[in-house]
Amino acid sequence: MTRIYVDDADQAIVVCPKCGFAKQIDAKKYKSTSKNLKAKCKCGEVFKFNIEFRKYYRKNVRLPGEYRVQESGESGEIIIEDLSLGGIQFETLKPHRMSTNTIVALKFKLDNSGRTEIQRSAKVMWIKEHNVGAEFIGPKLSERDLAFYLRP
């Protein structure tokens, strides 16, 4: 199923996989409904697509790294499970004392040919036992390397 990303103005471009005809749609009306949709092109092709309201593409990964809580100094090892330009989801290997809104410093290496090291600060948005979802904050020094790595 094709994934269509919505821009900041809630607009999306749907492209027919058969003939390439492209049509811009207003995606606002799909925010509260199922994101899996079906379309029929003027060429007769019927196809399914998924509307993604995320601001950034998210990539499933399995990368080792480490965290350090800014306020308390608590630190530990993590496994990064998914990654985007806007945030990260990771699993701590040991119990932690993080809570929502905690600021953490993250450090990990990408699995690309250059083994690029990424160091970013993030704000914890949600926690489910050892799993943590966080939004990147602060300077975006490594954003170019991360954007190249995350290309779909």
- Helical element count? 1
CATH topology of the largest domain: Thrombin, subunit H
Question: Which CATH class of the largest domain?
Answer: Mainly Beta
Assign an overall shape: elongated
Helices and strands: which structural class? mainly beta
Helix content: under 10%
Between the first and last Cα atoms, what is the distance in angstroms?
Answer: 14 Å
In round numbers, the mean pLDDT is 90
Low-confidence stretches: none
CATH H-level superfamily title of the largest domain: predicted glycosyltransferase like domains
CATH architecture of the largest domain: Beta Barrel
The counted number of beta strands is: 11
SSE order, one letter for each helix or strand: EEEEEEEEEEEH
The overall number of domains is 2
Q: What portion of the residues fall into strands of 2 or more residues?
A: over 45%
Widest β-sheet, arrangement of strands:
6-7-8-11-10-9
Describe this structure in words.
This protein has 152 residues and is mostly beta strands. It folds into 2 domains: 2-52, no CATH class; 59-149, predicted glycosyltransferase like domains (Thrombin, subunit H). Helix content is 5%, strand content 51%. It has one helix spanning 143-149, and strands at residues 2-5, 11-15, 22-26, 36-40, 46-52, 59-69, 75-83, 87-92, 103-109, 117-128, 131-137. The strands form 3 sheets. It has a 6-stranded antiparallel barrel with strand order 6-7-8-11-10-9. A hairpin with a 2-residue loop joins β10 and β11. The longest helix has 7 residues, at 143-149. It is elongated. The two termini are 14 Å apart. The mean pLDDT is 90.
